Amino acid sequence: MDYETIGTEPIRSERTSKLCADFKNGYAVNFAFPVSEAFKTALDIQFTEYNVYVFGKDGKHIFEESIEKKGKRTKRKKQKKVAGWTQGLEFNFKAGDIIYSSTTAYTDWANYIQDPKEITLKVIHGVKANGDNDGLVMFNLTKYNASNILTITMSQIDFVRYLQSQIIVNSANQINNAI
């Protein structure tokens, strides 16, 4: 099969091989918050099998042998089953999930809670996103050194965007810094 190349996108699937998070050393490096790999399930990142089209060296689809169908000969694009990490949109952050603004929280808690820049997010209620709705996340945003606790409610999708950017977009599409 060395003459064939395998595409990277799943065929007719609600999942994609393009992940929302790139994990290095256990954390999402392309997020504003160091989201741990432990949250892959909450981010709907799963190791799954899926079909991809097979291409020849010339970059064109390879077709499978002709198939008899009601007396007519037909061809279809060749597919191959592969396994890999895939991304869905059924985000599911749940009550009790805690995300810190830096990895210092894991290594030096005393300094973490004294630093005025550091914040902690603790999910107090979550409703899973699915094909019918964007879900819901209610969480406390805490700054320990200022004893500030702010309770914020947003969709699961907006929560993931917040984890990526540290910017909250409210329903009027106004951008507000949460910290």
Radius of gyration (CA) equals: 22 Å
Average pLDDT for all residues: 83
Count the E strands. Answer: 13
Order of helices and strands: EEEEEEEEHHEEEHEE
Give the termini distance in whole angstroms. 54 Å
Which structural class best describes the helix and strand composition?
A: mainly beta
The percent range for strand residues is: 35-45%
Oligomer: single chain
Low-confidence stretches: 1-13, 171-179
Strand order of the largest sheet: 8-9-10-11
Helix content: 10-25%
Task: Describe this protein's structure.
With 179 residues, the protein is mostly beta strands. 11% of the residues lie in helices and 36% in strands. The chain is built from three helices and 13 strands; from the N terminus they run ββββββββααβββαββ. It has helices spanning 104-107, 109-114, 156-165, and strands at residues 5-6, 23-24, 27-28, 45-55, 67-69, 72-74, 79-87, 98-100, 120-127, 136-143, 148-154, 167-169, 175-177. The strands form five sheets. The chain has a four-stranded antiparallel β-sheet with strand order 8-9-10-11. The model is unreliable at 1-13 and 171-179 (pLDDT under 50).
